[in-house]
């Protein structure tokens, strides 16, 4: 799935107010049982149980921040209110939160957020929604291109919701992300402006680019369906798309969901974000499916008939030879694994790289991701991958960072920021630890690692990962960090360093208060949502906010954006706090 995964269980999903579309990728929301990371998270917001400490307020705030921030603040919009459905000429000034283009309507300066508009571009857009002081629109036509235009290399660009900024040079994508992190930390976090590059007195470090801006994903999830999406040209609006309804005839489709459509599939043959061999496997499965529609019918989300629901292709490396390894997972409605055997044989004869084929049976109606049963159809139940010198077994439903080479960079930066003594005397607390990868990669330099995580399966995987790598000084605890009780903290001694890596809503206020009285020497905060991160840093560093009465404060010393998801608006950053003595 291209969805972000760092979110609490499904029941908590909802679509945030500000998206103009429902999850625009097919990358299904359901996904694995627990969280892959945040890559495509912007489409889904998670809510804490008490509903108080959610990311949405920050999303709204950060949008209005971007408005205040817009250049030419002098052209105040006066008595101009666009109407829904109106087509207007505008100029895009910058990329705002979630990669929406921040545009100003020509002659009036009225602020409009427009999907796919790029800085410097003059365009015509149609108003979709009006909000207080701004509107949301979608692009109809480019009048003159942006400053850093490139030809988007993907044939599905503009319709597929996955890569939104392919037509911007990679350097410009990086600049926009770095700027967004800076603006949010400076304004929402109240840390003031800082020079963008790592100059003296600056907390901002230059963003770390991804060495491979394409083919970096080690996992893609495709969906089967009975209706093919038919292209209508660029810049599709979900609201205006009934032109192309295909007839009642059932078709075979395997690809990604069309933007805003749960029932229509874009038959993508080649996704530039995944490995070339993965694309060849996808093509084989598609060709086979077209020819065997009767024996292997795709699942129909309307009638709930059919068999094949999803296809996931994951890649890893042999831990000895370093050679590519692929896992193919067919998610089916019924438990009829024999039906898949001819297809399995065809895959394994054509692709020696495929070392694992599994069938996850998921009989639930609707998008539930609960797996009733897993059959191994070929080879092993897992593939392997190396990260920071450790070996990880990745099974069909285990979480693993989706950009392996950049995860290597991210974790290395995190380790640097922890500034461990390395003499085995310190205690490390790894909050929101997932399958434990970050803490485990530092285990040999500390006395003990304590990992804390909500999802039980992830905790089990973390313990297995520790065992596989012969690590004995790591303890993983299951628990909900949004519901701290007085018992919290009794399982581990006072840590020297805290790593926290929450999902998009950021940390609960109770956890922040707890950290303030815990007084660890350092807190390294990894975030996939700089807006909620900025809010939390403000609470940890500045007195007098939101009833957080504590004499302990931290000092922000370092902000390091790392680009984990090129071609998309998703931003990852590492921030470092030092305890003020
Ligand atoms: C961004 S991921 C971090 C994963 C891990 N640090 C890594 O790098 O692989 C966030 C993790 O927080 C977990 N999580 C979400 N809500 C939680 C909660 N309320 N309490 C504890 N863990 C939670 C998710 O299951 C997910 O594994």
From TrEMBL:
Q: Which domain of life is it from?
A: Eukaryota
Q: Does the keyword Iron apply?
A: no
Keywords in alphabetical order: Methyltransferase, S-adenosyl-L-methionine, Signal, Transferase
Q: Which InterPro entries does this entry report, sorted A to Z?
A: MeTrfase_TrmA_CS, NA-bd_OB-fold, SAM-dependent_MTases_sf, TRAM_dom, U5_MeTrfase_fam
GO terms classed as biological process: RNA methylation; RNA processing
Single GO MF annotation: S-adenosylmethionine-dependent methyltransferase activity
The record's PROSITE patterns line, in alphabetical order, gives:
SAM_MT_RNA_M5U, TRAM, TRMA_2
Chain ranges of the TRAM domain? 81-141
Gene3D superfamilies, alphabetically?
2.40.50.1070, Nucleic acid-binding proteins (2.40.50.140), Vaccinia Virus protein VP39 (3.40.50.150)
Residues annotated as binding S-adenosyl-L-methionine are 401, 432, 453, 501
Q: Where is the active site?
A: 528 (nucleophile)
Asked if the record carries the keyword Mitochondrion, the reply is: no
Family affiliation:
Belongs to the class I-like SAM-binding methyltransferase superfamily. RNA M5U methyltransferase family.
Q: What is this protein called?
A: TRAM domain-containing protein
Recorded source organism is Physcomitrium patens
Protein encoded by which gene = LOC112277465
């Amino acid at each position: 799935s291209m969805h972000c995964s760092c979110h609490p269980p499904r029941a908590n999903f909802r679509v945030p107010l500000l998206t103009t579309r429902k999850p625009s990728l097919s990358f299904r929301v359901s996904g694995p049982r627990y969280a892959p990371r945040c890559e495509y998270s912007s489409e889904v917001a998670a809510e804490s149980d008490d509903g108080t400490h959610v990311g949405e307020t920050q999303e709204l705030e950060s949008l209005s921040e971007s408005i205040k921030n817009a250049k030419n603040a002098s052209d105040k919009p006066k008595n101009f209110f666009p109407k829904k459905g109106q087509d207007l000429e505008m100029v895009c000034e910058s990329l705002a939160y979630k990669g929406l283009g921040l545009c100003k309507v020509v002659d009036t300066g009225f602020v409009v957020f427009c999907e796919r508009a790029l800085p410097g571009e003059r365009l015509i857009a149609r108003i979709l929604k009006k909000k207080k002081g701004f509107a949301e629109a979608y692009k109809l036509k480019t009048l003159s291109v942006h400053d850093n235009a490139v030809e988007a290399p993907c044939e599905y660009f503009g319709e597929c919701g996955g890569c939104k900024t392919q037509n911007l040079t990679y350097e410009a994508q990086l600049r926009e992300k770095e700027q967004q992190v800076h603006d949010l930390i400076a304004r929402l976090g109240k840390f003031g402006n800082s020079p963008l590059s790592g100059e003296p007195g600056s907390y901002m470090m230059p963003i770390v680019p991804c060495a491979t801006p394409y083919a970096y994903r080690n996992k893609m999830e495709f969906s089967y369906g009975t209706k093919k999406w038919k292209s209508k040209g660029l810049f599709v609006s979900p609201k205006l798309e009934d032109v192309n309804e295909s007839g009642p005839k059932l078709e075979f489709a395997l690809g990604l969901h069309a933007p805003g459509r749960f029932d229509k599939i874009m038959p993508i043959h080649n996704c530039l974000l995944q490995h070339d061999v993965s694309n060849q496997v996808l093509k084989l499965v598609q060709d086979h499916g077209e020819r065997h529609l009767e024996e292997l019918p795709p699942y129909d989300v309307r009638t709930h008939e059919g068999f094949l629901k999803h296809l996931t292709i994951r890649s890893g490396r042999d831990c000895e030879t370093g050679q590519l390894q692929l896992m193919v997972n067919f998610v089916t409605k019924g438990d009829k694994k024999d039906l898949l055997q001819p297809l399995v044989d065809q895959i394994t004869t054509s692709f020696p790289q495929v070392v694992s084929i599994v069938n996850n049976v998921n009989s639930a109606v609707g998008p539930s991701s609960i797996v009733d049963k897993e059959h191994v159809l070929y080879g092993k139940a897992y593939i392997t991958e190396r990260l920071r010198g450790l070996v990880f077994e990745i099974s069909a439903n285990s979480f693993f960072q989706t950009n392996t080479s950049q995860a290597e960079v991210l974790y290395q930066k995190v380790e640097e920021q922890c500034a461990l003594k390395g003499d085995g005397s310190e205690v490390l607390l790894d909050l929101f630890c997932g399958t434990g990868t970050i803490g485990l990669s530092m285990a040999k330099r500390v006395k003990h690692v304590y990992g804390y995580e909500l999802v039980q399966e992830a905790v089990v995987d973390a313990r297995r990962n520790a065992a596989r790598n012969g690590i004995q000084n790591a303890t993983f605890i299951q628990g909900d960090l949004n519901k701290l009780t007085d018992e919290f903290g009794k399982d581990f001694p006072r840590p020297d360093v805290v790593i926290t890596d929450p999902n998009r809503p950021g940390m609960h206020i109770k956890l922040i208060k707890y950290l303030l009285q815990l007084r660890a020497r350092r807190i390294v905060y990894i975030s996939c949502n700089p807006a909620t991160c900025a809010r939390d840093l403000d609470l940890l560093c500045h007195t007098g906010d939101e009833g957080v009465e504590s004499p302990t404060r931290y000092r922000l010393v370092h902000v390091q954006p790392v680009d984990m998801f090129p071609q998309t608006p998703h931003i990852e950053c590492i921030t470092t706090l030092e305890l003020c003595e």
